[in-house]
Design brief:
By secondary structure, the chain is α/β, with parallel strands linked by helices. The protein has a domain of about 270 residues: TIM Barrel, CATH 3.20.20. Strands 1, 2, 3, 4, 5, 6, 7, 8 and 9 form a 9-stranded mixed β-sheet that branches. A 3-stranded antiparallel β-sheet has the order 10-11-12, covered by helices on one side. Helix 5 links the parallel strand 2 and strand 3. Helix 1 packs across helix 20, helix 5 runs parallel beside helix 7 and helix 12 packs across helix 14. The chain is globular. The N and C termini lie far apart (about 50 Å).
Amino acid sequence: MTDWEKPSSADEKKLCLQEIFESGQRNHHISNTAYPIAHSQTWKPYRIGKQKYEQTISGAFSELPQIALYSHIPFCESRCYFCEYTVVGKSELHLTERYMQSLDQELALYSSILGPRELIGFDIGGGTPSFVDARLIDRHIQSVQNYFSLTEGFGISIETTPKIAASDPQKIREYQASGIRRISMGIQVTQPDLLKILGRDANGTEQLDRAVENIRDAQFDRLNIDLMYGFAKQSLASWEATLKYAIKLNPEYITLYRMRYKLTRISDQASQVDLDQVIVQSRMAKEMLTSAGYWSNPGKNTFSKIANDTGTSAYLTSRVIQGSPYLGIGLGAQSFTNCTISYNSGAIGKNLAPYFSALGCSELPIQDLYLLPRIQVMAKMVAVSFYFGEVNLSYFQAKFGIAFEEAYGDAVEFALKNGLMQYTDSKNGMEFRCNSNQHYGLHCSRCLSLTEKGAESFNGTIALFFAPSVQAYLIERDPTTAEDMHMNQRFAERIVSRSCQDGS
């Protein structure tokens, strides 16, 4: 069992649950699955000095025979206005081959420190990972297979865009040859004027049919389409049109993402989106997708058309249900063990120089590392579990050595009493084996799950299970005057401005 770090005094306080719930609803743009919140403040007591990086990482991974893997490929032709992720501009696109070599170098470095490990899932994300040459992706997959052994249910998923999938069918076929079996394509919205506002006008509807046709011709039978809602200038009619178009494309899965605004160029628009608008859009999506044969329990953002299939990748499914540790490699990538979270170099400045520099010195390219107490790691697992709208009680107890009700007794009672959550025998379980089509088998597990009411009060309900320091931050924060959104916007604008000066 993990020897947990002692919690800070801020994480030993007990706060009013009604206040916590209301603060989550009030701060609905930031109270979500992206845990923690304001980590430079709330996690400050747990930060580890650089001199202890390798020792801490080695110890944290030593008790983990199985992990998931995420490779971050940050290249994009341009940064979409809604993007909150670590991407780089056009001035660095010529560095793709060097970057992919650096990913393999980072893999080798971790392999030498950690020794043999089994992989239970592998996601290649970004950025736009399909922007780089397919041979570089194939070479990277081979490196992963050289450094890790693979579990029986292992699967690889990659992200693409409509523009690339439509214009380069050979690349999509090469992914299939490399062993990738699940592909995710970001449509986001189809409204032309909104696409232009968001910097996505190059991915119009004229390319979507061709993109899906190329993906099907490449023999992919696990296609996910990402859609986004909660934009300031997104009418209900335009959201309905986007949903209808996505359903017509007949993907196996449709994943809905609510616009989060933090660290985006349009974060100043957050005040123009109220919670009622978001709830109405979410309700419409649920009704339309359910009528079209897609299934999702309350609060789950991925809808699946295949019976007994969560719709998510092996990497994400294991994270959500089991709280599985994962290694993230690449610019700004996050890694998670049973007691640590780290963020790779480049997460702040969104440039490749610090990442290349660390690997050039054969050092782990880590920017920030936190050794966390159990209460913070539990909160992280619960926050991620809310991707599926429920917490698997067996896996929680196995991970932390404590029953969920013992860890969160008052919060559980509050959620049950107010009709926000209920006990269920969920089908969102995962056995780590698969059939020849890579459709992951499911089994029933006892869960504490969101009700429909809880799903519509998602932001307040999830906050009940955050660590006290994060809850206190939400209680004290006034979203109408908060400076953090404006700081995030100014930072994002500086990043874009610098990219433009470099030739983007």
